[in-house]
């Protein structure tokens, strides 16, 4: 008789990977997928997360791996390339990564989403990331800068990386390959050299701070732009959103208009149209905008929606001191839909105030009633009624009270007309009360008793 002894060990995940902090803990090997994250300094790391993990899991792993300061994490986000449009998009941390990015090619960029108005609020590591972010944006012309400006900025980086200037045969090679400007010639190298000579004695962190203080005053620093056109002459216009508000930019002319948050009463969108409604009382230089509404037509409805969301997030990050008071009593279709677009990260009254950031805006803080941005059924543009999330194939789920008495009250309230938007739509067709029509359709289709409450309605979009 033979006796065999078998020694078995179970190792679900490589222990070395776990120790490095690049793997989501508690997940079996068969469910893990690789995701590559590139940082602003061009370094990259591969992380392993559950195939159905939310974006927050990957973001936390990427931030913790580089020992990102907890307060600095809020400025960053992950970016991926949209499979359909081939353009960069911010990863939604509250949705599954697999539902946003192609699972066969999980490549992301760890980048700034909210650019600080005063770089000194960041830790030293985050400042270095911001330097590299600005360096990349200037090189790619995302942040426009003339040759003289590019040479001055390059001299600060040269001082930080090389120290005090010393004549060298390789200096020209360093400047040409330093990604300082899209076009580098002999004159540019000489200009960088001359400015570098003026930086003698500056330490690395000092040179970086001088660099960032220069960058923060550039026209499109921290601005996320989307393309549109002038309605009258068809001239291409960049519509941007940033810390101070919304702006328009024309190549060759610079920033043509800046619409600050404190003067905007309401923002909204429907289909391709993005709308801004101004306060009834404005400074003298902006009195022609008092109570009026400006409408921009973007390239597509999805772009208009993304721009709207980005505007809401920037307003919430830089200006929203507290949550707008919740509506009491009746809750309509439109109010529920609007709340889906409000930022969820920093609305707690204990954590939302960031004095070190807001004090640099040098303006009186005012909270925009964002929860009212899409409530008005009779707005001239018939502002967006249904929340269509990124990449979603279905609409939102609503809770509707279908008592006939409440329906009648809702119909009376929604009939009240509002001020017309000045967009040349005098012959616009009479608007339909979609809220009431949907409720009637539900009752007719299901033959429900009027006193029955419909708890859930699911709407799906057909894909052509």
From TrEMBL:
<dbReference type="GO" id="GO:0005856">
    <property type="term" value="C:cytoskeleton"/>
</dbReference>
<dbReference type="InterPro" id="IPR018980">
    <property type="entry name" value="FERM_PH-like_C"/>
</dbReference>
<dbReference type="InterPro" id="IPR014352">
    <property type="entry name" value="FERM/acyl-CoA-bd_prot_sf"/>
</dbReference>
<dbReference type="GO" id="GO:0005886">
    <property type="term" value="C:plasma membrane"/>
</dbReference>
<dbReference type="GO" id="GO:0008092">
    <property type="term" value="F:cytoskeletal protein binding"/>
</dbReference>
<dbReference type="InterPro" id="IPR000798">
    <property type="entry name" value="Ez/rad/moesin-like"/>
</dbReference>
<dbReference type="InterPro" id="IPR035963">
    <property type="entry name" value="FERM_2"/>
</dbReference>
<dbReference type="Pfam" id="PF00373">
    <property type="entry name" value="FERM_M"/>
</dbReference>
<dbReference type="Pfam" id="PF09380">
    <property type="entry name" value="FERM_C"/>
</dbReference>
<dbReference type="InterPro" id="IPR011993">
    <property type="entry name" value="PH-like_dom_sf"/>
</dbReference>
<protein>
    <recommendedName>
        <fullName>FERM domain-containing protein</fullName>
    </recommendedName>
</protein>
<dbReference type="InterPro" id="IPR019749">
    <property type="entry name" value="Band_41_domain"/>
</dbReference>
<feature type="domain" description="FERM">
    <location>
        <begin position="33"/>
        <end position="322"/>
    </location>
</feature>
<dbReference type="InterPro" id="IPR019748">
    <property type="entry name" value="FERM_central"/>
</dbReference>
<dbReference type="GO" id="GO:0031032">
    <property type="term" value="P:actomyosin structure organization"/>
</dbReference>
<dbReference type="InterPro" id="IPR029071">
    <property type="entry name" value="Ubiquitin-like_domsf"/>
</dbReference>
<dbReference type="GO" id="GO:0005912">
    <property type="term" value="C:adherens junction"/>
</dbReference>
<dbReference type="InterPro" id="IPR000299">
    <property type="entry name" value="FERM_domain"/>
</dbReference>
<dbReference type="Pfam" id="PF09379">
    <property type="entry name" value="FERM_N"/>
</dbReference>
<dbReference type="InterPro" id="IPR018979">
    <property type="entry name" value="FERM_N"/>
</dbReference>
């Amino acid at each position: 008789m033979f006796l065999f002894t078998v020694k078995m060990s179970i190792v679900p995940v490589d222990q070395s990977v776990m120790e490095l902090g690049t793997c989501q803990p508690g997940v079996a090997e068969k469910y893990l997928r690789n995701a590559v994250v590139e940082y602003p300094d061009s370094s990259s790391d591969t992380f392993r997360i559950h195939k159905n993990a939310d974006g927050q899991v990957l973001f936390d792993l990427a931030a913790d791996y580089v020992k990102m300061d907890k307060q600095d994490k809020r400025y960053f986000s992950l970016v991926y390339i949209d499979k359909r449009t081939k353009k960069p998009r911010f990863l939604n941390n509250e949705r599954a990564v697999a539902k946003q990015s192609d699972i066969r090619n999980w490549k992301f960029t760890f980048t700034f989403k909210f650019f600080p108005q005063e770089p000194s609020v960041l830790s030293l590591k985050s400042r270095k990331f911001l330097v590299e972010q600005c360096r990349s944006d200037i090189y790619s012309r995302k942040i426009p800068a003339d040759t003289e400006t590019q040479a001055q900025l390059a001299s600060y980086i040269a001082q930080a990386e090389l120290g005090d200037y010393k004549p060298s045969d390789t200096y020209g090679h360093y400047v040409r390959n330093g990604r300082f400007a899209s076009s580098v010639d002999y004159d540019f190298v000489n200009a960088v050299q001359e400015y570098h000579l003026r930086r003698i004695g500056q330490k690395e962190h000092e040179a970086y701070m001088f660099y960032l203080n220069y960058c923060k005053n550039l026209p499109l620093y921290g601005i996320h732009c989307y393309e549109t056109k002038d309605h009258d002459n068809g001239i291409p216009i960049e519509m941007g959103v940033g810390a101070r508000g919304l702006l328009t930019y024309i190549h060759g002319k610079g920033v043509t208009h800046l619409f600050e948050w404190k003067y905007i009463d309401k923002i909204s969108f429907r289909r391709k149209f993005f709308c801004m409604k101004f306060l009834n009382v404005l400074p003298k230089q902006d009195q022609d905008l008092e109570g009026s509404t400006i409408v921009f037509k973007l390239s597509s409805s999805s772009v208009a929606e993304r721009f709207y969301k980005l505007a809401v997030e920037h307003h919430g990050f830089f200006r929203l001191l507290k949550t707008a008071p919740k509506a009491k009593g009746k809750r309509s279709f439109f109010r529920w839909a609007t709340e889906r677009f409000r930022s969820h990260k920093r609305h707690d009254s204990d954590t939302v105030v960031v004095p070190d950031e807001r004090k640099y805006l040098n303006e009186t803080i005012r909270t925009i009633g964002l929860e009212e941005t899409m409530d008005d059924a009779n707005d001239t543009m018939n502002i967006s009624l249904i929340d269509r999330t990124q990449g979603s194939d279905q609409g939102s789920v609503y809770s509707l009270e279908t008592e006939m008495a409440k329906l009648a009250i809702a119909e009376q309230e929604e009939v009240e007309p509002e001020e017309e938007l000045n967009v040349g739509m005098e012959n616009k067709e009479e608007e339909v009360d979609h809220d009431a029509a949907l409720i009637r359709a539900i009752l007719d289709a299901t033959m429900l008793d009027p006193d029955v409450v419909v708890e859930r309605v699911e709407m799906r979009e057909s894909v052509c």
